[in-house]
Amino acid sequence: MLLIRILAALLVSALLHPAQAEPVKLRLGALAPRGTAWHKSLLQMGEKWRAAEAPGAEFVVYGGGSQGGEADMVRRMRVGQLNAAMLSVIGLSEIDPSVSALQKMPLVFHSWDELDYVREKLRPALEKRFQEAGFVVLCWGDAGWVRFFSKTPAMRPDDFRRLKIFTWAGDVPQADIMKSLGYQPVVLEVADILPGLQTGMINMVPTAPFWALTLQFYPHAPYMLDLDWAPLVGAIVVTRKAWDAMSGVGREALAKAGSEAGVELRALSRREHQESIAAMEKRGLKVQRLTPELEAEWRRAAEQTYPLVRGKMVPADFFDEVQRLLREYRSAGRAGAQ
Predict the structure, then answer these.
(1) pLDDT digits (tens, 9 = 90+) for 56-106
(2) CA angle 143, 144, 150 (to 5 degrees)
(3) 98-145 pLDDT tens trace
(4) Which residues touch 283 (CB under 8 Å, ≥6 apart)?
(5) What's the rounded Cα separation, in Å, for the pair 15 and 8?
(6) Confidence check: pLDDT of 51 > 50
(7) Parallel, antiparallel, or unpaired for β 135-150 and 164-168?
(8) How many other CB atoms are found less than 10 A from the CB of residue 256?
(9) Per residue in 168-213, pLDDT tens?
(10) Burial 118-131 (b: 16+ CB within 10 A, else e)
(11) β-bridge pairing 223-239 and 135-150
């Protein structure tokens, strides 16, 4: 009888005082150093979410690669040590390789407009695949065009075969393809690029000008090839587990803040691309400009890699779809469509 009374009292107490859900804490990892516009944008996005989410919500940004490389951050999200991350295609490919179609097809995109068109067409399929893998995409962004920064002058594809080229850790297919073509990839984390340049472990870095300036690569690799090899594409993602733990109001606020951050960061990166080059030129960067003949040689070299890239670095169906969408876009453009 006593046990029944105790259970009844507990039931009444639970009904009168329902358990409060634990406050949501979002822990976001990023390579962007503290104090950069990228880092500040993440903090602003988090503040908008925190103000809308239930009391006690926290948003913490671990910047500057403090949580390791991009593959490390994806692993940390999978085990719950992080709930979100700002990732480039290198890290995003750890979640689903289809996203590599936006970055790992060299010289396939000729303008930001082409990239925007293709990305928007692919976005529903990409985001569905990420959801199925347990992640929600908050926004898409880019960080400028990848350029080649080298310690010594290098203009032609053959010139780069004698250089030791930084390659992202975790991107095994790219390293394998480079080796098969006679290049010398050196697999490192981003945090090891500067020490690698200083010690001679590497002497060429493919990166966006903004990062070459911000992370001070260019004093050790002062020659830049004036060739837009590929866009440096990325996204901010949050785990489905963290997303589902938020209130409806919190999810709505984070989706809106993420979308706004994406627009802001894309505009910022495209402006900073040229500004960074100009700033580095004033400090000694030597821009190696291509003749039409040299540019044509690079395009032929890039096209020769496509059979190797298709199905190895980029899933075949997405590789083909990007090519189809570009033909569609360029055909419409020639017809006067906007």
Answers:
(1) 889 999 998 889 989 999 999 999 999 999 999 989 999 999 999 999 999
(2) 110
(3) 999 999 999 999 999 999 999 999 999 999 999 999 999 999 999 899
(4) 218, 219
(5) 11
(6) yes
(7) unpaired
(8) 15
(9) 877 777 888 888 888 999 999 888 999 999 999 999 999 999 999 9
(10) bbebbeeebbebbe
(11) antiparallel
pTM of the model: 0.86
3 state SS for the chain: CHHHHHHHHHHHHHHHCCCCCCCCEEEEECCCCCCCHHHHHHHHHHHHHHHHCCCCCEEEEECCCCCCCHHHHHHHHHCCCCCEEEEEHHHHHHHCHHHHHHCCCCCCCCCHHHHHHHHHHHHHHHHHHHHHCCEEEEEEEEEEEEEEEECCCCCCHHHHHHCEEEEECCCHHHHHHHHHCCCEEEEECHHHHHHHHHHCCCCEEEECHHHHHHCCCCCCCCEEEEEEEEEEEEEEEEEHHHHHHCCHHHHHHHHHHHHHHHHHHHHHHHHHHHHHHHHHHHCCCEEECCCHHHHHHHHHHHHHHHHHHECCCECHHHHHHHHHHHHHHHHHHHCCCC
- Condensed to tens digits (0 to 9), the pLDDT of residues 318-331 reads 999 999 999 999 99
pLDDT of residue 100: 94
For the record, the structure tokens of 63 come out as 């910047």
Supply the pLDDT for residue 3: 42
- 3-state SS, one letter per residue, for 225-285: EEEEEEEEEEEEEEEHHHHHHCCHHHHHHHHHHHHHHHHHHHHHHHHHHHHHHHHHHHCCC
Residue 21 confidence (pLDDT): 55
